[in-house]
Every structure is written in structure tokens, then in C-alpha cells.
Amino acid sequence: MEEKQTKSLGKRIGTGIIVVCAVLFALFFFYTEHYYHADAQARTALQSGDGVTVSQAALGYLFDGPGTEDLLIFYPGAKVEETAYAPMLRKLAEEGMDVYLVAMPQRLAIFGIERATEVFTEKLVDPDDLTVWTQARERYGHFYIGGHSLGGAMAANYAAKHPDKIEGLVLLAAYSSKPLPEDLSVLSVYGSEDGVLNRNKYEENKVNLPADYQEIEIAGGNHAQFGSYGKQRGDGTASISAEEQQKATVDAILSFWEAE
Q: pTM here?
């Protein structure tokens, strides 16, 4: 009798675990499938032209402009369609900094921190070559990484883990939770009306940045307007347009890049 009761209890526990796992999976799927979509302007920016070739690959999009020396690998914000950043990144490519916009698993950069390395094996170099970064440097001499919000935080994690790979880090409404090398160039940009960025965490984690990091506040900018995906829940109201905020961001990145 006791043996039967034990088996019955074990079956009930097993069934309960399966049900809980199924519910959690369903909730996760529901959470990740409700995301911010790129707008029409972003879709237009994915078209090649005006000196920029935009090519789609398994890991994202390469914005290939007239520049040949510098590449920025960009991680999108959480639950944001990666193509929403196309207008801003295209402008960077037009000015000489090529950009690889990374598509993240389930649109969450926390699941794709190492994709910066995968980018080279997938698109920029011969996938059969074992010395990925060596061959990548035959095309680009300087590599930067950056991202928006959670994407920026995960880009910072990558830079902290691979200090020999990256020369600069661009944080858009983001902060680094890990100490970064003192010789790493870092640019931090945020909007004055950002209602999503945790300002307390942002200030607390400044200790992880190099002493000479650069910080720029875009007057009138908010959180969502670094991309082109509309309003974001909890965000502040911007007093400038998305185009103005993105131009200010591009100008900041170009100044940061040219100073290197």
C-alpha cells in the first residue's frame, strides 16, 4: 500500500512539474512575442542606396558604407525589433563607420551576449578559418561594440569579457554592471526625458567605467527615440523628434570615433 501511495505521489509531483514548466514556457513565449515593431521609416532605411549597401544575414544586418577601417557591432534593446535601429545606424555607415546590427534570440540580448564573435564567423570572414578575429582584421582594423538599453548592458558585458577584441564601447541609455578596462574608450549617451532608464542604477554603475569615459545628455530626448518603434511604456515625453535625437546620437558617436 505504501509503495503504491509513493508511486502515486511521485506521478502527481511529476505531472505538477510538467504543468508548471508548460505554464512558464507559455508565459515566456507570450512575453517575448509582444514586442515593439519597427516603423515604416526603419523599413525604408533597410534599402541599399546613397553609398550604403544593406545586406541581411542569419545574425542580422550589415550596413556597409564607404568606410573600410571601422566596424560597430550593435545590440538592440529588449523586446525591440532590431530593424528599428536602421535609420540611426545607416547614418553612421554613410559617415564611414560600418555597422553590424545583431538580431538577438527572442529579441533579448541577454541570450546573445557572445554574438559579437559569431558575427565574424557568419558574415565577415571565411567560416572555415579558425582564426576568426585575425581574418576579420584584414577587413576592419578597429572594432567597437554598443547597444541600446539591455543591448548596451550586454555589449558592456562582452567588452568586459573580451578586452583584447574591442577598442570602444557605446552605451545608449545603458550602463555596465561589470568593471571595464581603463584603456577602453567608452561613450555614454542618454536622453534628459528618459523614463525607462533606472537613473539610480546608472549612477551607481559609473564606478565600472574608465575614468575618462565620455557622457552626453541629449536635451529633450527620451528612451525610445534611439530607435524607430514608437512610444515605449513608462517612457518620458520627448520634446525633440526622433530624427533630431538620432542625429544628435550619430554626431556624438562620430565625435567619439574621430577622437580615437
A: 0.84
